[in-house]
Structure formats: structure tokens, C-alpha cells
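This is your field. Have a critical look at the following sequence-structure pair:

***
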Amino acid sequence: MSERVLIFDTTLRDGEQSPGCSMSLAEKSRMAHTLRDLGVDVIEAGFAASSPEDRAAVAHIAHAVRGVRIATLARCVQEDVELAMAALEHAEAPRLHLFLASSDIHLEHKLRMSREEAVCTAAHHVRLARTLCDDVEFSAEDASRSEPAFLVRLFSEVIAAGATTINVPDTVGYADPASYGALFALLRREVPGADRVVWSTHCHDDLGLAVANTLAGLEHGARQVECTLNGIGERAGNAALEEVVMALRVHHRRYRLECGVNTRRLYPASRELAAITGSLVARNKAIVGDNAFAHEAGIHQHGMLRHRETYEIIDPEDVGVPGSTMVLGKHSGRAALRTRLAGLGYSPDDAALNRAFVAFKRLADTQREVDDKDLDRLMRHLQTAERVS
């Protein structure tokens, strides 16, 4: 029996905070509709108190996008909470997302607040938020660098105050899978009322471990994942939505977790976001990069031509990619060349294929990729040379 994981998408908030990824109101609205159609459970539309423009975007999305929960971030400050709720006024299903730092380094150097003051501040504002909204999430910023015993106390108080979702962020990408998973196990075991709330992950990729840490959290009881399309976000980015979703799908027997994402919309959504932000997707990016289903090496191409699963663990069509690509370059072999030539209408015998392969290799040494036009010219040249001889 599979359990359900909620996908909390923060592309429009944490993702937009990534340098160079800012969006206009119209662009955020367009992406919000795309995320709704993708099948995420929660869209964090922005940080309403951060600026009038962000507040307007949150309010517009809350009014225009139906069929999905709309959230906005707020500090544990009364004005933030009130502005956030005002922006969510017309949301079909609003969520207030409150946060307060919990690590000693943040409390001392950023907030200049004691632990006792932090607990009182968090609980007070969660109670305030619950008078305005039934769905209140609380995040302990920099939780992965916080003392676990203090987190137990902090989360106990905010749950008692009415928080319905508890987020345990790896804000600076410090955690590793073992420690992050163990933290969830400890919190779910030690926090009173832990069984009454949804536990959530929020991982950054500073050490390249955001997705691995997210999966570790899920293994130890988290049932909400905070993530972004293409993994955009502060510094090295957030856990990539497409990677988490497909890891759960490929390893379903292990995790036995499901989500509502329509995976066939992943690639189109990824490309739409890249077009809007101008932040290009790396060619070797998992799931949605240009090379994710592209094969150049001759050994790989030969295996792929025999049976796709020799070198692909995901059917490209399952993530919205039309199909695998055989890239012809200097590493390619005869099998891939013969297949591509057949697609162009050429059926050389073994001797002609050998001549074509020698000419192809010479050409491939001078350019990174040989396309269909190059092959057509090459074959026409060889055929002309044969007639002349």
C-alpha cells in the first residue's frame, strides 16, 4: 500500500530568489497555471511582505489559480502575517507559511534573540496565524544546524499553538542524508503531537545533496517535499522537483510513496520555466537536460539499438521527452551510423558502409556533432566519387 507525498512547489518564491530568475506578474501567473496543471499540491506564490510587487503577484495567483493550495511566506512578525493573509484572501485553499530561524548562529548574529524569545515568538505568531487561516505551516530556518533538543521544544510549542505542517529546512545545504534522516526520526519520536502534523523537507544543494537529503527525510517520515522546477533557488538551488518525483517512481518498491504529479508534463514545464527566466538547463541535468536521453558512445548506441533499457532507466516519454536521441560524433559506431543512414533513405552494403564510416569519422574529428545534413552531403559525395571511378 503506497502513501501519498505532498509536492510543495516553491519555484515562484525560493526559486525566483535565485539571481537572474526574477519574473514579472504575468510570467509568475503563467508558471502558476503550469504548476497547477503539472499536479503539485501546494504553490508557494511568493513572499507577500517583501514588496508591493510580490504581494500583488501572490494576490493575483490566489484569485486566478484554482484547484491547488496557494501559500505565501511570512516572517514571525505581525505585519507580515496580516499582509500574507490579505494577499491570500481570495485563494480557494490558502496556506500561511511562517518561518523563524532556530540555529544559534542565526539567533545570535541575525535575529539577536535568545532561544526562549524564539520559542515565544514562534508560538505567538502561529496562534495569530491560526485565527486567520486553518492551514498554517511553520519552518525552523537552518534547522539542520540547530540543536536537536531545541528543535524538539520549538516544534512542540508551535504544534500546540496550531501549526499543521512542520518544515525542517536544510537552509544552507549543510546536511548529509544520514544526519538529515536521523533528525526526522528523532523529531517524530520526541516531539509531542508529531503524529498530528505533516512533516516536510526543504533542502538546498550547496553540497550537491539536496535530492538525496530529501529522499532521506521521506524515508524517515516526511510526507511533504518542498522543491523547485529545474532545481532553481538560492545559491546552488533547491531539490529539483523532477528528480525527486522520478526517483520515487523508479524506486517505488523501496519507498512505496506516490504523488499527484503528471510526469509527462515535466519536460514541457521545465522548458517553459527556462524560457521565462532565461536560466538555461544544463545539458547534463538529470531528467530534463538535453543529454538525459542522448547517446553518442558507440557501445551505448549499440546497446540502445538492441534494447532501450540497456542504458536508460526511464522511458523518455514518461517525462514528456519525445524519445531518445542518437547523437553522431567521434565516439559513435557503425550500428548508429547505419541506423541514421537508413532513416535518411540510404541502404549501403557492408563495403559502402565501411567507406562511409571512414569518411564520417574524419568529419566527426573536425566538429562536435554530425547532423543529418552533414550525412546527406557525405553520402552524396561518396556516391558521386563511386560513379566517377
